[in-house]
Design goal:
It contains no helices and 11 strands. It is an all-beta fold. The strands form 2 sheets. Strands 2, 4, 5, 6, 9, 10 and 11 form a 7-stranded mixed sheet that branches. The chain has a 4-stranded antiparallel sheet with strand order 1-3-8-7, with no helix packed on it. It is elongated. The protein starts with a strand and ends with a strand.
Length: 119
């Protein structure tokens, strides 16, 4: 069993910054790509950013230049640095990872962390 646990969500004002963290725990043998997704009320879950095990990144157009995804492979943790936040960034942010326990690969999801940006 593997788990992803997010932290760092908060209520902030427009223009401020937040840093989200997501740590994998349990029997983690290997992690391939990791990513952040978000879901606003009444909308579908959308990709925010992804990062491969070698560090190659991909971003949604709406966050390019403001958000930075990174990872610490030694800590099995992925981060999302969010700068110049906008009200439209308000959503529940979910962490995702392709994780192996040495036997099976899991498409693992965290429980989500709320980010609210006030205008």
């Amino acid at each position: 069993q593997v788990q992803l646990v997010e932290s760092g969500g908060d209520l902030v004002q427009a223009g401020e910054s937040l840093r989200l963290s997501c740590a994998a725990s349990g029997r983690v043998f290997r992690i391939n790509a990791m990513g952040w997704y978000r879901q606003a009320p009444g909308k579908q879950r959308d990709l925010v950013a992804t990062i491969t095990s070698s560090g190659r990144t991909n971003y949604a157009d709406s966050v390019k230049g403001r958000f930075t995804i990174s990872r610490d492979n030694a800590k099995n943790t992925v981060y999302l640095q969010m700068n110049r936040l906008k009200p439209e960034d308000t959503a529940v942010y979910y962490c995702n990872g392709e994780i192996s326990n040495g036997i099976t690969w899991y498409d693992a999801w965290g429980q989500g962390t709320q980010v609210t940006v006030s205008s």
